[in-house]
Amino acid sequence: MARIVRHNDESVREGYIRNGGKEVKLFTSALKAFQCNNRIVMAQRKHLDDFLRGRIIGRLECGRTQLEVSEELGIAQSVIFRLWQRFQDDGNVSRCYSTCRPRVTTPNEDRYLAVTAKRNRRSTASDLSRQLSSATGTTVSRQTVYRRLGHIGLYARRPVRCVPLTATHCRLRLAWSREHALWTPQQWSCVMFSDESRFSL
């Protein structure tokens, strides 16, 4: 048996339209246009406001059937069924709004990224993403790794090309500079600065 699609009190069945007891065959282009318009109307979703939800629940509590409420208000019966089931479960019919997308990583995976990044300071975000994927099976992008590390104060930095100075180094350099603060240009002329010259042996 062919499926009948109802639209504006008319029935369409395999290229035929029935109206007032007469069955007239539609042209192919007209049939396609009719079906396309019908799909567009069905695809448009409208969220029910709280007032309309209250009207639906009120009618159902008065003993009306779901089919009657559906035909009266022009709402799909499946929507009314889900709304009634939710009202019976928790007594709430308000629409639930999602605050944000669910997080891809768990707190344990965030800690794993932090520990791995602290152990190897030269690891890139791509390296950390691959290590997390191999360890836990969770695939994340580089941007996600950047955000997770940024929450704990770890940011990408280029390594500094210099000798790291300790407290002893700073103290000795300060003492040397104080000793030579009053040197004359003649005394400095006898000093050869090897770090500023290039020698070929």
Fraction of helical residues: 40-55%
Mean pLDDT: 75
Helix-strand topology string: EEEEHHHHHHHHH
Euclidean distance between termini CA atoms: 99 Å
How much strand content do the residues show?
5-15%
GO molecular function, one term: DNA binding
Protein name: Transposase Tc1-like domain-containing protein
Subcellular location: Nucleus
InterPro entries: Homeodomain-like_sf, RNaseH_sf, Transposase_Tc1-like, WH-like_DNA-bd_sf
Compile the SSE list and pairings:
Layout (H helix, E strand, L loop, with lengths): L4 E3 L2 E4 L2 E4 L2 E4 L2 H16 L6 H12 L4 H8 L3 H14 L16 H13 L5 H12 L5 H10 L15 H13 L5 H4 L13
Helix pairs in contact: 2-4, 5-6, 6-7
Jot down its keywords.
four-stranded antiparallel beta sheet; 201 residues; alpha+beta; Transposase Tc1-like domain-containing protein; RNaseH_sf; DNA binding; Transposase_Tc1-like; Homeodomain-like_sf; single chain
Mind explaining what this structure looks like?
With 201 residues, this protein is an alpha+beta fold. The chain has 9 helices and 4 strands, in the order E-E-E-E-H-H-H-H-H-H-H-H-H. Among the domains are: 50-90; 107-152. The chain has helices spanning 28-43, 50-61, 66-73, 77-90, 107-119, 125-136, 142-151, 167-179, 185-188, and strands at 5-7, 10-13, 16-19, 22-25. Strands 1-2-3-4 form a 4-stranded antiparallel beta sheet, with no helix packed on it. Strand 2 (10-13) and strand 3 (16-19) form a beta hairpin. Helix 2 (50-61) crosses helix 4, helix 5 packs across helix 6 (125-136) and helix 6 packs across helix 7. The radius of gyration is 38 Å and the shape is rod-shaped. The model is unreliable at 1-20, 22-31 and 33-44 (pLDDT under 50).
